[in-house]
């Protein structure tokens, strides 16, 4: 479960700025 959370956090850090720019 820890691994899943780590992956999720990583994806969030990568996609958060992109989503903010696209204003999805």
Automatic annotation (TrEMBL):
One of its GO terms (molecular function) is kinase activity. It comes from Aeromonas jandaei. Keywords: Kinase, Transferase. The keyword Transferase applies. This is Putative sensor kinase protein.
